Amino acid sequence: MASHGALAATVLLVGGVTDAIDGIVPALGDDAIATIVVLAVSLSLPCFLYGAWLMIVHDPVTWRVLRTHLAVVGLGLALTTVPLVWWMIPKLWSQVSGFAVVHAFLGLQSYAFFALAGTGIVRILRAKWASEAYRRSSSFDLDDLEAETGDLDLGHWRARLRIGVVGYTLLWVLAFLTGVVRYAIKYQPLG
Q1: pTM score, whole prediction
Q2: Which of 82, 167, 76 is nearest to 120 (CA)?
Q3: Is 100 domain-assigned?
Q4: DSSP character string of 34-76
Q5: How far is CA 145 from CA 5, 134, 135, in A?
Q6: Exposed e or buried b per residue across 117-152, where buried means at least 16 C-beta atoms within 10 angstroms of its C-beta
Q7: 150 φψ region: left (φ > 0), alpha (ψ -120 to 50), beta (else)
Q8: What does the alpha-carbon distance between residue 40 and residue 57 come to, in Å, rounded to a whole number?
Q9: Looking at the domain assignment, is residue 91 inside a domain?
Q10: Alpha-carbon torsion (175, 181, 184, 186), positive or negative
Q11: Does residue 111 lie in a domain region?
């Protein structure tokens, strides 16, 4: 029952935000919205870098570090995905050009790699969540986690995660750069 209440609250919140955006958007010009989108997507880069830094400098990666990493990266994904769904996809069909197609292709491929990473992270998180020892420990060997889970081949899922993250990151950077160039050419923000 509590999940139905949370779902209803989320739907109301999203509906309210959408109504507020729909009320603001007609008042803003296309160039102002494009600037907001560029800023939102640009703000996701520090989130991704900080999330990567957390995973690189912490050995072992504790449950607390992992939760922080996921929260920061989730914020970065939201800063990228909300403008994508709300503004970029609807505008794509009216702006089909060579640059727009390259930008869309790179962005789509980055999300395909994200889906690949997602298949790995789901299995890894499930194994980590199921392990009481992992959640309570400040230093935990992942080989012990693999032994604890039995038939789950965490090495395979970690490889999928790494390939997905590297592919997403490289293609996201290329899509970001082509988007910034498209923005600069189309809206000429510096005059």
Answers
A1: 0.76
A2: 167
A3: yes
A4: HHHHHHHHHHHHHHHHHHHHHHHH-SS--HHHHHHHHHHHHHH
A5: 35, 7, 11
A6: beebbebbeebbeebeebeeeeebebeebbeebeeb
A7: left
A8: 27
A9: yes
A10: negative
A11: yes
Tens digits of residue pLDDT in 49-67: 999 999 999 877 777 888 8
63-98 pLDDT, tens per residue?
788 889 999 999 999 999 999 998 888 888 888 788
- Neighbouring residues of 123: CB distance < 8 A, sequence distance ≥ 6: 152, 154, 157
Least confident of 46-55, 94-103, 135-144, 167-176: 135-144
Cis preceding-peptide flag for 60 (omega within 30 of 0): yes
Q: How far lies 76's CA from each of 83, 137, 165, 179, in Å?
A: 12, 28, 13, 17
What is the count of structural domains for the chain? 1
Do 92 and 168 form a contact (C-beta atoms < 8 A)?
Answer: no
Residue 14 lies in a domain: no
CA distance 182 to 30: 14
Which residues constitute the domain of residue 113? 30-187
* pLDDT over 80 at 19, yes or no: no
Q: What does the block give as tokens for 105? A: 């292709």
Give the N- to C-terminal CA distance of the chain in Å, as an integer: 56
